[in-house]
Amino acid sequence: MAEHERPLDDDDVILAGEEQEEGARPDDRIDDERMDEENTLKREFVSSVEDALEAGETGAVYDLVEPLHPADVADLLELFDKDDRATLAAAITDLMTSEVVAELNDYVREEMMEALPADAVAQIAEQLETDDAVQLIEDLDEDDQRAILAELEPEDRIAIQSALSYPEETAGRLMNREFVAVPEHITVGDLIDYLRDGRELPEDFFEVFIVDQRHHPVGTCNLSWILRTPRSIALGDVMKRDQTLIPAMLDQEEVALMFQKYGLISAAVVDEDGRLVGQMTVDDIVHIIAEEAGEDALLMSGAGEGDINEPIREAYSSRVRWLVANLGTALIASLIIAAFGAAIEKLVALAVLMPIVASIGGNAGTQTMAVTVRAIAMNQLTRSNTRRILTRELRVALLNGVTIAVLIGAATAVIFTPLLGAVIALAMIINVVTAGLAGVLVPVAFDRLDQDPAVASSVFVTMITDSMGFFAFLGLAVALQVV
Amino acid sequence: MAEHERPLDDDDVILAGEEQEEGARPDDRIDDERMDEENTLKREFVSSVEDALEAGETGAVYDLVEPLHPADVADLLELFDKDDRATLAAAITDLMTSEVVAELNDYVREEMMEALPADAVAQIAEQLETDDAVQLIEDLDEDDQRAILAELEPEDRIAIQSALSYPEETAGRLMNREFVAVPEHITVGDLIDYLRDGRELPEDFFEVFIVDQRHHPVGTCNLSWILRTPRSIALGDVMKRDQTLIPAMLDQEEVALMFQKYGLISAAVVDEDGRLVGQMTVDDIVHIIAEEAGEDALLMSGAGEGDINEPIREAYSSRVRWLVANLGTALIASLIIAAFGAAIEKLVALAVLMPIVASIGGNAGTQTMAVTVRAIAMNQLTRSNTRRILTRELRVALLNGVTIAVLIGAATAVIFTPLLGAVIALAMIINVVTAGLAGVLVPVAFDRLDQDPAVASSVFVTMITDSMGFFAFLGLAVALQVV
């Protein structure tokens, strides 16, 4: 009302317009016309790229893709199937920067690189930082690797060969070989002058390492400490002496846990002689943290890598192996049922009820196993507290077992007979407690044998709960003379 | 040999000693006498603390714990049970710094804070950065919260109340309210002088935000760019204009995905009007990334939070709900079996074999579901590629189904009859393909309904594969007149 009573002036209009726009989209990457509220590419946008590609309008495709962030270009490529992906890549050659390649899913990148000639891959590799270049090359055939390495500048080749000399998934393979290391005696002013010189600096860095003459790290300085310190102060007086050093042979899972545990942004990597050879930064680690934390669900279900971009042949081969193993455990359970064939013939209710005991036991075992595997992965479950956790899980299992036993026991007593109700209740308690025991002990045992507890535990836990479920129920039914 | 021929001098001895020490343990946090090769506290070390505690030797306990990193002190506290934990905390009061409290597991921290008087908690909260202080307070009762807030300095109180005004698990709740923001026109030299003044700076920061008069972010400068730029250059000429802004209301899961996708170290948080209100740094995000990536395995198994420090009552309550839901689905499967009771009575082999079909179907469904849930969580599965992924999974399912069908069909044909072999093979293919379909469609459907696909999917998938397993096998047996 009030607004209608006075004429709007320019200021009003501009402010209103700006406020509206900014209120509606505080971030141009989020509430974009291309991105949905989950920050993924909108269906409509992807369709318009598809349509332009099919119509052969290369210029239109380019104009659509050009405003995207490299990570989103990578996402777009991943959304297409193999053939369309190649067409799209050809239409946006200029936009296929090294950043896009670095952001691609491993399977998609490998597939795309295999389709390119060695010199084209070498050209991309040269633009990448060492760690990304290594990722690009490490999964290719040895012949392809050699051809690409031959095309590289000597300096890049040496860096990549040095990385490839470390085992896969170790700090030495993954680290960045560009970092800033200076002696202890130089001052903040010296350092700033050196950095302003700008020779051979990494593009981004978050700390400066202080080394002695033998190139052993003696301390570290966050850049924010340097910026707030007068020029005349020596770095030795600003630096923190106590720093986390990463051995080059350390597995990426342990590296990721160290970054998490100590809240690191970057850290120095040292070789066996304690010499500084590289650094790892947290932006490379977040992928590893997410990968390692997420893979347990896939491993426990036997889905292998579980990547939707994995070739069908590989997905089939890893999953079917698991199903065959489970077929084996199912057969063992069947043998137990077969042993009680005479009882089932007399009382078919046994066949009707027996899967319930096995199924609930399986679920209870999976719950405990998931908790145990997670605690082992996070280094929370160690030799020092295994007994305490086992006691805890058995108490939870007993509570769960009794609750479910009361429910199914009562229902069975009403529908069938009170005695059969007692049998299924007792069998249920036995099986749920067994599940709790197996859910802790099986993964702990695999961990102590230096096997990944996520990989093999569930086959064993399921075998135990299935067999115990059928055995306890059918065995009690016979022992208590239900039939 | 050569060494024996000449007398050792001091230099040799020192060098040899140093080399050995450094060669043996390049990092004092890894090959420590207290830490094992996985960087967790050694059993022997924990036992010696336990023994000293039991003997009441407070001084010895203090000396043992004193050299530990705060994160390791937190780990040590978590290893003990509730009572011993309180005794330990009392023995090392001086070492119970705010860093230790910030590193504690949520449940353990909450339990310890509840045992302390309000002013002691307030004292700890004041030493913490806002985000850590909020974590300390948010899970307490409202009465406790109010008592603690009353004890705080007004400035800290306002910051914490502002954080608590945002919903849990949003950027506004989690962000740090200390950051460096300067106008565009100031020079690198001005900024360095301002930082050297050192008033009210956050302890660590990785970028400087450039804001306009309305406090809207217009660009950002990594500290490494500032350090390499001459004093006279204006920040407006160094900064990057294109930056990722995080809306304060954004959920932590989406924040974590943005940090991963764009490789961020820190990012500005803006309110609805686009004003800069805080920053998030990646060291706070890594915990969220690990939590979000790891929780799917726990959610899919119905283990709730799945934290080994969760009180037994809560663990029981979340798990038993799941088991009751599974009891419901098991009963549906039983109804199907009961409908074929007459057939089972005639041929008990049906009861022996039927769990195999259900079990393999359940496993196949869980595999596909794990892959789908992970792809949805990583924003890899969107409306644009759902159909392609469904086709892919059905192809894998068909391959798996046929392989297992051949194995179990042949075995059944030999042991029982060829016709029963054909029945189980056909039922197996039907059930594994159904499992593939359900494994994709159930989680996708929950996601489209804005429900977490990890939470409810497996109850439905298992129900579908169990029911279909029994129905296809027993139904085909009757239809093909095996009995």
Automatic annotation (TrEMBL), chains A, B:
Bilayer topology annotation: Multi-pass membrane protein
Keywords from the UniProt entry: CBS domain, Cell membrane, Magnesium, Membrane, Metal-binding, Transmembrane, Transmembrane helix, Transport
CBS domain sequence ranges: 239-295
Main localization of the protein described in the UniProt heading: membrane
Biased composition annotated in UniProt, kind: Basic and acidic residues: 22-36
Domain of life, per lineage: Bacteria
Pfam families: CBS (PF00571), MgtE (PF01769), MgtE_N (PF03448)
Entry's Gene Ontology molecular function annotations: magnesium ion transmembrane transporter activity; metal ion binding
Subcellular localization, as worded in the UniProt entry: Cell membrane; Membrane
Compositional bias ranges of the Acidic residues kind: 8-21
One GO cellular component term noted in the UniProt record for this chain: plasma membrane
Role noted for this protein: Acts as a magnesium transporter.
Name the UniProt record assigns to this protein: Magnesium transporter MgtE
Lineage of the species this protein comes from: Bacteria, Pseudomonadati, Pseudomonadota, Alphaproteobacteria, Sphingomonadales
